[in-house]
Amino acid sequence: MTQGEGHVSGAGPGAEITRTGDPDYDFGGACFDLDKPGDREIVRFILSQALFGEATGVYCGKSLYAAGSLEAARFYVRQAKQELAHLQLFADIFRALDMKPVPAHWVVKLLSSHNNYYPLKVLMEHAIGEGMVLDIFKDLLLQTLPDSDPRVPLIKKKLRLVCREEEEHIAWGEKETRRLLAEKPWLKTPYFGLLELQMSVLPMLVRAFEKRAGNHPVLVHLPGFLAHVQRRVYEQGKALGFVPDTRPGAAKRAAAMSFGLAVFARSQFARSESKLEKIYIEELGLG
Ligand SMILES: [Fe+2]
Ligand SMILES: [Fe+2]
After folding, report:
1. CA 20 to 30 Å from 98, out of 2, 29, 73, 271?
2. Contact yes or no for 32/218 (Cβ under 8 A)
3. How far is the CA of 31 from the centre of ligand 1 (A)?
């Protein structure tokens, strides 16, 4: 396992995110032109997905109910506040660029849908979901918004702040994923199946732009960027210990996906179980 981003304080001691040693995807200096209507449409689409993601991110507050320690409770309160602030920051970016958001793409809605089953929420939203959010903010937006545009430096300053906080959220998600896997090793297979499913719907998100991809300096990178994100997520899953080193054959993958879907389907009817009132005395060191 390799780690790239250094210590992240909010997720507690030893929490580092499992970015591989790979460099971030390189867009080769390609940028959008924020004065061109076609480019503005694409940036509007990307920012609209981000805005929706931040709005649903606030529901991490719901994990407070399932938090199994005071550390977890503290984290979710802090994260919910940060996600609310991100929502506002993206609204500021829309205003700065004189844009109005469009509804979120169905893939983004699917990937960010709330899950009441805590182990799935932790893996799918915090570890993997927010990991991909960071790819979009850090690799895509920070590289392809043009510094020559007078509105961009302030926007990038806001985005960098968001990225730092997203790194903390991922670090937490990964730490919790490791803990849950140690506690419930049977989760490995459904986790792997769900990751396969998530990776299989990802290309549908960029399909709308494929026709234009050939002659646009940024869009031409989309297939490469998509492959980079998928590769990085598989590496993340390997580092967390639920993705096998060599990709299993189609039958095993299909079985893992069915298991993942079954756990996911069951999770849709799960009621989250409250914890703090059962553990507070011990957690406070008064036991
Ligand atoms: Fe966020
Ligand atoms: Fe986040």
Report:
1. 29
2. yes
3. 23
Q: For the chain, how many helices (H) and strands (E)?
A: 11, 0
Cα 29–Cα 35–Cα 38 angle in degrees, nearest 5? 85
Residue-level pLDDT at 11: 54
- For residue 85, the ligand closest to its alpha carbon is 1
| Residue 125 DSSP code | I
| CA 47 to ligand 2 center in whole angstroms | 15
> Considering every ligand atom, which ligand is closest to the CA of 89?
1
Which CATH class for the 32-283 domain? mainly alpha
Q: Give the distance (Å) from ligand 2 centre to CA of residue 128.
A: 11
Q: Which residues contact 268 (CB under 8 A, 6 or more apart)?
A: 115, 116
* Cα 86 to ligand 1 centre (Å): 5
Tokens, residue 47: 């920012």
Listed residue (68, 49, 59) closest to 275, CA to CA: 68
β-strand partners of 7: 16
Whole-number Å distance between alpha carbons of 43 and 28: 18
Query: Which ligand does the CA of 172 lie closest to?
Result: 2
- Taking the centre of ligand 1 as the mean of its atom positions, its distance from the CA of residue 266, in whole angstroms, is 27
**Residue 83 Cα to ligand 1 middle (Å):** 5
Is the Cβ–Cβ distance between 147 and 32 less than 8 Å? no
* CA torsion through residues 113, 116, 120, 123, sign: positive
Mean pLDDT value of segment 146-157 = 96
Residue range 230-287, pLDDT digits in tens: 999 999 999 999 999 999 999 999 999 999 999 988 888 877 788 888 998 999 999 8
- Whole-angstrom distance, CA of residue 145 vs CA of residue 143: 6
Q: Which token pair is 220?
A: 């031409």
Q: How far is the CA of 82 from the centre of ligand 1 (A)?
A: 7
Smallest-distance ligand from the CA of 125: 2
